[in-house]
Amino acid sequence: MTSTPIMSRRSVMLGMLAVCATGSALAGCSNNQSSASGDESYTLVEEGKLTLLSDYGYPALASIVDGQPEGFEIDLVGAVCDRLGLEPNWLPMQKFDTIIPTIEQGGRADMASASITITDERAERVDFSDPYMDSNQAVVVPASDADSVTVDSLNVAGTQVAVQSGTTGDAWAKENLPNATVVPLDDAISCLTGLQTGLYQAAVADLPAMVYLINTSYTDLAVGIEVPTGEQYGWAINKDNTGLTAAVNTALAALIEEGTVDELMEKWLGETI
């Protein structure tokens, strides 16, 4: 199995949020900004710029190539910035499991875009934009094992399962494979590389990124199990900056309606999700 299609499950909301401006400020921020429409006001770390966090861990979604960020999420955030009249300012790579705490604390970045699944637990700590992409989890194994692997066959002592630390794949593996050894790593590439070299017996991570990587780089691996977790990605924003959430949602709704989101998915992933 060398190519695995991604199921299309578009369920991003098309309605715009109507949230009143609050005047609250991120800790350490004093730059006030109004959206291009003038309907929402918000604070920014640096005037005229949307300062952004990412782990740049998923090629085609967000990664660093020749020193520059690129991918679907990078282009989509750029389109949002165009609508808000802001310049995107991508900060250096940050480990995924530190992104939510950094946004929660405030003062360093305005928003995080890192294929972050919206969960109730995370939503207690940060605000989320409307969803811009759907996802499930993928259990990746050597292609020769793809037709025979099951959750039960992995859930045995001695099995090493690689995950990206702090992700929903990490949480799923710990809950559903209690007898296996779940090995947290910094990024999905490390998970697949370790699986490819025989260090691990399986890897669990987000389906869209895994399919892209398998089809383009790790052709001796395959998705053995698609776990229908029904996840959705959203941008993380500090809870005190609800005006920014509203402005981002307004821009996202317009980009969905005009077809820009679908166009960018086709460009980077080869299909809409």
Automatic annotation (TrEMBL):
SUPFAM superfamilies: Periplasmic binding protein-like II
Gene Ontology cellular-component annotations: membrane
Domain Ionotropic glutamate receptor C-terminal: 55-271
GO terms of molecular function: ligand-gated monoatomic ion channel activity
Signal peptide start and end residues: 1-27
Ranges of residues in domain Solute-binding protein family 3/N-terminal: 49-272
A Pfam family reported for this protein in Swiss-Prot or TrEMBL: SBP_bac_3
Keywords of the record: Signal
Family annotation (InterPro entries): Iontro_rcpt_C (IPR001320), Solute-binding_3/MltF_N (IPR001638), TAT_signal (IPR006311)
Protein name, as recorded: Amino acid ABC transporter substrate-binding protein
Source organism (scientific name): Candidatus Coprovicinus avistercoris
